[in-house]
Design brief:
The chain is of the alpha+beta class. The chain has two domains: about 60 residues; about 130 residues, no CATH class. Helices cover about 40% and strands about 35% of the residues. It has four helices and eight strands; from the N terminus they run H-H-E-E-E-E-E-H-H-E-E-E. The strands form two sheets. A four-stranded antiparallel β-sheet has the order 1-2-3-4. The protein has a four-stranded antiparallel β-sheet with strand order 5-6-7-8, with no helix packed on it. The longest helix has 30 residues. It is elongated. The N and C termini lie far apart (about 110 Å). Keywords: Signal.
């Protein structure tokens, strides 16, 4: 009787093992793919992802491009002057033919601080651009902590302490050209009527073809 029970137990064990093997064999067979097929599928998804990223990248570039920047065109007007504290400061003016307005690019020590279409004849550097100059120009670095404290208290940089503004005067538009004169009005670290530098520096007068 004992031998019969042992035999039955062995048979039962074999049946269970056989069933388990048949149950789990199907998913394993389904899950496995030939290496070449798996690699082809991965390559397909990678190509698709790369194409999507390329489209997104192109769209982002389109959003941040200046719509009608013509800096570098032979008809653009440029002038460079040496301003105390700031050093070499260059202005490029260009005509935007779509709406017949002027665009300006201003660089200080080879660092672009302004590049945009002008709305009117007067524009000042943003606080962000002014802060970048505090780290760029050696003479301004010692004042960074003071300006940071002022921003923390007032939430902006007061123009009488630090400001750099482009002014255009005598601007005349006609069918063939835009003419006028340009200067830079600067207040640089002015405290209690004393300034590291304060002045109005002329870039000269311009005449830019509109065609």
């Amino acid at each position: 009787m004992k031998h019969l029970s042992a035999s039955l137990a062995v048979v039962a064990f074999c049946v269970i093992v056989s069933l388990a093997t048949s149950i789990y064999a199907v998913p394993i067979a389904i899950a496995q793919k030939p290496d070449s097929a798996a690699m082809a599928e991965r390559d397909y998804h990678r190509v698709g992802l790369a194409a999507k990223l390329a489209r997104l990248n192109n769209n982002n570039h389109k959003k941040i491009q200046l719509p009608a920047a013509r800096v570098g065109n032979e008809s653009d007007w440029s002038s460079c002057i040496d301003i105390p504290v700031l050093g070499e400061t260059c202005l490029v003016l260009y005509v935007i033919p779509e709406n017949l307005t002027l665009g300006a690019k201003l660089t200080i020590d080879n660092h672009t601080v302004l590049d945009e279409e002008l709305d009117g004849n007067h524009i000042c550097l943003s606080d962000t651009s002014l802060l970048s100059l505090l780290e760029l120009i050696p003479a301004l670095i010692p004042f960074k902590a003071i300006i940071d404290a002022i921003i923390k208290a007032d939430k902006y940089i007061p123009a009488h302490i630090l400001s750099i503004c482009l002014n255009l005067t005598n601007v005349v538009f006609n069918s063939t050209s835009v003419s006028g004169c340009a200067d830079l009005d600067s207040n640089i670290m002015c405290f209690e009527s004393k300034c590291l530098y304060s002045g109005d520096d002329s870039f000269g007068c311009f005449n830019i073809p509109t065609f």
